Amino acid sequence: MITAGVDIGSITAKAAVIVDGEVKGTRVDFTGYNAEQAGRRVLDELLKELGMDAQSIDRVVSTGYGRNSVKFADKAITEIICHGTGAHFLNPQVRSIIDVGGQDSKAMVVDSEGRVRDFAMNDKCAAGTGRFLEVMARALEVDLGDFGAKSLKSERPSKISSICTVFAESEVISLISKGEKRENIIAGIHDSVASRISALAKRIGVGEPLMMTGGVAKNMGVVKALENRLKMSIEVLESAQVNGAIGAAVMAARL
Amino acid sequence: MAGEAQEKEKRKMKSAKKMRDIMTNYYIEAKTAGETGKKVAWITSGGPVEPLIAMDVIPVYPENHGAMIGASKMGGELCERAEELGYSGDICSYARSDIGCSLVDGGPIGGLPKPDMLICCNNICGTVLKWYEVQARYYDIPLFIFDTPFCHTEYADEAKKYVRKQIDEYTGFLEGVCGKKFDHDRIKEVGRLSVEGQQLWQEVLDTAMNKPSPMTCFDAFFFLALIVTLRGTQETIDFYRDLLEEMRGRVAEGISAIPNERYRLLWDNLPIWYRIKWLSEKFASHDACLVADTYTSAWCGSLKYMDENNFLDSMAEGYTRIYLNIGVDEMIKIVLEMVDKYDVDGFVMHSNRSCKPYSLGQYDIQRAVQREKGIPSLIIESHMVDERSFSESQTETRIDAFMEMIRQKK
Ligand code: SF4
After folding, report:
1. How far from the centroid of its chain's Cα atoms is residue A60's Cα?
2. Ligand 1: distance of its center to the CA of B43 in Å?
3. A60 Cβ partners below 8 Å, 6+ apart?
4. What is the model's pLDDT at position B2?
5. Chain B: closest CA distance from residue A38 (Å)
6. Do domains A1-91+241-255 and A93-236 have the same CATH topology?
7. Within B126-213, where are the H helices?
8. What is A1-91+241-255's CATH number?
């Protein structure tokens, strides 16, 4: 059976194709203005890369914030279930997942079958999300992709106390004007994000083995800060960002 | 299509129109009180209303009005008026929209009738104290504060004496404002009617124990208005008798509140008034029926303390020990009982930024429900009247995921 998962996030659109229980390929694009088109495009491009055509796909499941606008999907399933399923598919030992994307962060606890037992999401606020990091990267004029590596060099992380994105940004700006080192500021930002996420995760009692997924998992600085806060080790797979799409493709096979 | 319309018609509650008529008449009577010479009192939703009815005073509830403002999606605008005066956006949106409404006589019914007096009972929260003080100054009218000590676990003797004494002060206050003697025979009758009304309301809510349930909590939110505003009157009793009959008839005929009830849920906290329809459709699309809630049952939750043969004394205890005036451990007991009583598969909690006393402790209650009953729960963050703080896509994702989780579990 050939299935596809399409995950439309607030910033990026992801696709994954699974053939007979094996991930054949994945792809990440920007979502842009039109979620439906973004879903079509990212899947088409992936199929092109794989030398497959759209007819060969048996079923598609969409997920993410734009899940309901992907009209060609057979079913829309929330990213909570898809991330749980994806993580369990890639490592059946996993019992907890923390997923941090562009506009939200969430924690999930799954059972031995990968079924979500409990979850918590950030409240209506960008603190503790990818968007928060993006705003800070702009203020610091540092490429977001360099955030992780830079922060690991920090000797003394700055203290960012405000959880409001706008206030935190002005805190960052005043730290810059005081001449604070960039790596310290970035490490402080990561700790601020981690403190929000760990509160969420503790609320539902996450435990090891714990996996982190979503775009922000690529940022080692956040992962380290989170490990410190939770006093747990966190597994991050190469496929962290496309985990939701993989989970969606797995769910598609079960429809 | 015709079949679908028929289906919908069948499911419609026949009593809804009657209820609307009663409420319309009630508000017309209240708004024309100036012409008929009747006095109007504004009173908090959990306040002891029976003495007012016994004195022929028309009770008006800013909170019920707030719910109407919310349901008409006018909350944001009126809250803004209050914020322009300097009231913080963190204040309860009933208070903000009421204060805003007083200034502009806005809202769905062009504002409430001007009060002759204010009756504030702090058994629901501390916000009402300041809110009513503000209004007492604004309208320049007398304010009676009925102070009910918080009952963490029990109703101590000191509290008992303290509250009972205030009932005499209350009736004395009414004698002063109304210029006539308090009618002790009449209050016995009103008390009896009030207790009977509450019993009937409880029986109406109990019909949701049936599977499938003939009503949802969204229906209860609607039909609640009478027990809040007109308890202690014959009209309320007649209405709830009819409603009860309608519900029992639906059960007998197998008419369910939603087309395909597969999951039963319990709601906690006030409704999100401006999203009732959206929420009920959203849950129904998942075949989930919110069969009961902690909110509407608060208007019959004190029945165990009420004694119609000794109404004034027992009322003191009944009004002091309502759901919002007890400790979290007591709340947990009530919620756990409801989980069993209505046999629910999940628990939906509205974390209501407006109502702190209702929302504080929710995480503890959630944990207890998960621990004791092993059912999943969901928290939705919002404000009950201020639609500016609702995020549809975030709420939708949470509800969808919650329902997927329940489905996986069942
Ligand atoms: S804070 Fe809660 S109890 Fe108090 S008036 Fe507002 S909604 Fe009612």
Report:
1. 20
2. 13
3. A3, A4, A5, A6, A43, A70, A72, A73, A74, A252
4. 57
5. 18
6. yes
7. 127-139, 157-178, 184-206
8. 3.30.420.40
Q: Which token pair is B64?
A: 């019920």
Tokens (6 digits) for B383? 């404000």
A137 burial via Cβ count (<10 Å: 0-12, 13-18, 19+): middle
The amino acid present at B72, given as its one-letter code, is S
Question: Cα separation of A203 and B363, whole Å?
Answer: 9
3-state secondary structure of B146: strand
C-alpha A154/C-alpha A73 separation (Å) is: 45
More confident site: A11 or A24: A24
Task: Lowest mean pLDDT of A166-175, B190-199, B283-292, name the range.
Answer: A166-175
Beta bridge partners of A108: A97, A119
**Can you list the domains of chain B with their CATH numbers?**
11-182 (3.40.50.11890)
Strand order in the sheet with A210-213: A116-121, A105-110, A96-100, A210-213, A234-235
Check if the beta carbon of residue B197 is closer than 8 Å to that of residue B236: yes
User: pTM (2 decimals)?
Assistant: 0.89
How would you class B261 by CB atoms within 10 Å of its CB: exposed for 0-12, middle for 13-18, buried for 19 or more? middle
Which CATH architecture does the domain made up of A93-236 adopt? 2-Layer Sandwich (3.30)
Q: What is the phi/psi pair of residue A30, to 5°?
A: -80, 145
pLDDT per residue as tens digits for the range B14-61: 999 999 999 999 999 999 998 999 999 999 999 999 999 999 999 999
Contact A39, A72 (CB under 8 A): yes
A7 touches chain B (CB under 8 A): no
Instruction: Give dist(CA B118, CA B107) in Å, integer.
Output: 20
Burial (CB < 10 A; 0-12, 13-18, 19+), residue B6, is exposed
| Interface predicted TM-score (ipTM) over 0.85 | no
| Domain range summary for chain A, segments of one domain joined by + | 1-91+241-255, 93-236
Sign of CA dihedral B62, B66, B67, B68: positive
Tell me which chain B residues have a C-beta less than 8 angstroms from the C-beta of A127: none
Could you tell me the distance, in angstroms and rounded to a whole number, from the CA of residue B129 to the centre of ligand 1? 11
Instruction: Report the distance separating Cα B401 and Cα B31, nearest Å.
Output: 46
Q: Whose CA is nearest to atom 2 of ligand 1?
A: B355
Question: Cβ(A248)–Cβ(A82) under 8 Å?
Answer: yes
